[in-house]
Design goal:
heterodimer, A: alpha/beta, Peroxisomal Thiolase, Chain A, domain 1, ten-stranded mixed sheet, two-stranded parallel sheet, 12 helices, B: 351 residues, alpha/beta, eleven-stranded mixed sheet, two-stranded antiparallel ribbon, 11 helices
């Protein structure tokens, strides 16, 4: 139960790049992925900026080898999960118990939406292949089959904390000696369903989002996928390489305040951060960087900020929301930001929080505003909070 | 470490909720879709909230509340749910409005309640429970993965009194689409004749079942959950079953009762039949899906049944495919598969 969980593979795709190298380059150039909607067929084109992955479905199908009519969620998941597994390059993988724990919130909704238009007009119409992968679990299954993973395959969906919980669960599968190697993270594609859903809540910024800024006006949606390859002590010893780092702390707590809004005290986020620190055996002062949940909505950022104040006051580590680059990728965000957190350890870098100008009133701290190199980054705290009060914090540490 | 089922509550097509007896009266339905017998939600939920909640949320919250009540636990140590389709009613409502209203003038309520974690979230909200909260959405083993998470939490000594449930709702739209996908029989059948009407397709169902798990022995416990195994496309399910039994030093003849997930579909049931012929050729056998219908977390109904069979040391006649004289099971194997892709095995002991 006390065994360590090492990170040996990373894979990511988002609005700022299709692989690790492109992400690092975009971060350094301080180039956000948001733009006018170009791929999603919606009346909100030209009105709401989003961070779309730059590849079309056709390009993703050609790249992944998945069937035509695959859900975009599967396609994104496949790209990043394959990258992570290739990056890990574990020899004799099939001699280990391998798991795939993937999260998403939309499943194959991008295809179901098309089906539904025809179906609503006539219940005997609509192409059934468009609903084949409607379920969240289908997305995971498609990619697990492609990767040849059979031992442990599952899907988590806890709104915007989904893939942080997938990574958390993967680590526990290893610690409970149920798995040796787990690819964990998540994916979500942009859909009319989520875009309109967030739009009805009036929390989408019509400009590029400004997380943790006093004048923030909401979030921008994004899409993508991010995965880590986690391995046990036993597997680590067989690898002739250094790990990227450790997953040293984690906690899942519930805000239990409101279905969508965060409590003003940031109760759930406070418990999640405190719990993760306790699990890692660390003090707040040990944290070198916080990758914020930082959606850019007035409610999230003030609740998260309040919780950070309660945990860290008076000494605040550097912090930023990389959603200022990728937009909010929902069920993928915990996985994508876990990759960014591990890259911060690996390259000793801290990402800027783009477009920040005015600190939030009553918050005695401000996020980092420029790309920082050669920083001593030893422990990174990554926050992921979601609807339903689901709050998860992860801590990644140098090995 | 041992895992005990302290209490269990099921809302289903049968009179399973808040009953003194155990399947004393069986309800017959004719059709291809079993409804759910709704409890009086006012006993569990603020009437102002009831109106806004979809069926799956109401049932989930009510079953969870009743489960806690029966265990005499006010605050669970964790809340974990499993559902393949999540909140279908709200999802369909929002999707319909997007299409009909061409993405304009949409009310947010259906979207807010459409996320898969809504049931677990609403239970946490009702209880003001800040503890670990998770939702698994992996097709026909969503509930089993929720159980596995709970078992790991107990093993890690991270929490006790863990509330675990499976919820699924069937709405007209999903029934129509799943019918077009060929899941159900093409003509109405009596559910009580389902196990004798083996042909293509099954009957649809829905339900909510919650369990309170603890690692503490207690005379009030219903059963011990000795093992849980979840398999994805196993090469040979028979060998997987034998391996699990061996791992726990159990011979097939030690199993007093095999409960299967047979659902009246020819191809589905053939998988069980092979296992029965190979490993349990003369064992007493019980089935349950004629009572609750087929749905991705139907095995949560199966577990409710297994726990009650062990607690009562008796098997209701309506379940039995193959009886045995003086059958008082102490050791039960619950075996379910979903479309022959996902298989789950649960080994349960009387306490």
């Amino acid at each position: 139960m006390s065994s360590k969980v090492y990170i040996v593979g990373l894979g990511v795709i988002s609005g700022i790049g299709n692989n690790i190298a492109e992400h690092l380059a975009s971060f350094e150039r301080e180039e956000a992925g948001m733009a006018e909607i170009s791929k999603l067929n919606t009346i909100h084109q030209g009105e709401l900026p989003v961070a779309e992955v730059k590849l079309s479905n056709e390009e993703l199908i050609a790249f992944t080898g998945l069937p035509v009519n695959s859900s975009r969620t599967s396609l994104l998941s496949s790209v990043a999960a394959k990258q992570a597994l290739d990056d890990a390059a574990i020899p004799d993988l099939d001699t280990f118990r391998v798991g795939f724990v993937s999260a998403n919130t939309v499943g194959g909704m991008d295809q179901s939406e098309d089906f539904f238009v025809d179906f609503l007009a006539d219940n005997s119409k609509g192409k059934l292949r468009h609903v084949h992968d409607h379920e969240c679990g289908s997305i995971t299954e498609v990619v697990a089959s492609q990767l040849g993973i059979h031992d442990i395959v599952t899907t988590i969906s806890t709104a915007c904390s989904s893939s942080a919980n997938a990574i958390f669960y993967a680590a526990r599968l290893i610690k409970n000696d149920i798995a040796d190697v787990v690819i964990a993270g998540g994916a979500d594609s942009l859909t009319k369903f989520t875009l309109n859903g967030f739009n009805t809540l009036m929390i989408l910024d019509k400009e590029f989002c400004k997380p943790f800024d006093e004048n923030r006006a909401g979030l921008n949606l994004g899409e993508g996928a991010g995965y880590l390859v986690l391995v046990s002590d036993k597997v680590m010893r067989t690898l002739n390489r250094k790990p990227y780092g450790l997953l040293s702390g984690y906690n899942n707590s519930n805000d239990a305040f409101h279905q969508t809004a965060s409590s003003p005290e940031g109760t759930g986020s406070y418990f999640a951060m405190k719990g993760a620190l306790a699990k890692a055996g660390l003090q707040p002062g040990d944290i070198s960087y916080i990758n914020l949940h930082g959606t850019g909505t007035p409610n999230n950022d003030s609740a998260e900020g309040t919780a950070i104040k309660r945990v860290f006051d008076p000494f605040y580590p550097p912090m930023s929301s990389t959603k200022s680059y990728t937009g909010h990728t929902l069920g993928a965000s915990g996985g994508i930001e876990a990759v960014f957190s591990v890259l911060a350890l690996e390259h000793q870098i801290i990402y800027p929080n783009l477009r920040f100008s005015t600190p939030m009133s009553e918050m005695p701290f401000a996020p980092v505003t420029s790309f920082l190199k050669d920083r001593p980054v030893k422990h990174v705290l990554s926050n992921s909070f979601g609807f339903g009060g689901n709050c998860t914090s992860l801590i990644f540490s140098v090995a | 470490m041992k895992v005990y089922i302290r209490s269990a509550a099921s809302i289903s097509a049968q009179k399973t909720f808040k009953q003194n007896g155990f399947l004393d009266e069986v309800i017959e339905y004719t059709g291809t879709r079993l409804p759910v017998i709704e409890p009086d939600f006012k006993a569990y939920i603020d009437p102002k909230l009831i109106r806004r909640m979809s069926h799956v949320i109401k049932r989930g919250v009510a079953a969870a509340s009743e489960c806690l009540k029966e265990a005499e636990v006010d605050m669970p140590g964790a809340i974990i749910t499993g559902t393949a389709f999540g909140c279908m009613e709200d999802t369909i409502t929002f999707l319909t409005r997007i299409v009909e209203g061409n993405e304009e003038m949409l009310p947010p309520t259906a979207f807010i309640q459409s996320t898969h974690n809504t049931v677990a979230a609403q239970i946490a909200l009702m209880l003001k429970c800040h503890a670990y909260n998770n939702t698994f959405v992996h097709k026909g083993v969503s509930f089993e993965h929720a159980l596995l998470d709970a078992i790991m939490l107990l093993n890690e000594q991270e929490a006790d009194n863990i509330l675990v449930g499976g919820t699924e709702e069937m709405v007209d739209t999903s029934f129509k689409v799943l019918s077009r996908l060929g899941l159900y029989k093409r003509w109405p059948v009596s559910n009580l004749a389902l196990m004798h009407t083996i042909s293509a397709g099954t009957i649809g169902g829905e339900g909510a079942a919650f369990f309170l798990l603890s690692d503490k022995a207690d005379p009030a416990n219903l059963a011990e959950l000795r093992a849980l195994k979840i398999l994805f496309e196993p090469e040979n399910i028979g060998q997987s079953i034998l391996a699990l039994l061996k791992e726990h030093n159990i011979k097939p003849e030690d199993i007093d009762l095999l409960i299967t997930g047979k659902n009246g579909d020819t191809r589905n049931d053939a998988v069980y039949q092979q296992v029965i012929s190979a490993i349990f050729p003369e064992h007493p056998i019980a089935n349950y899906k004629h009572l609750c219908g087929e749905y991705p977390v139907a095995n949560s109904f199966g577990l409710w049944l297994a726990a009650n069979i062990l607690k009562n040391a008796s098997v209701p006649e309506v379940l039995l495919e193959r009886a045995a004289p003086n059958l008082k099971p102490k050791k039960v194997l619950l075996y379910n598969h979903y479309q022959n892709k996902y298989h789950s095995l649960m080994l349960l002991d009387a306490v």
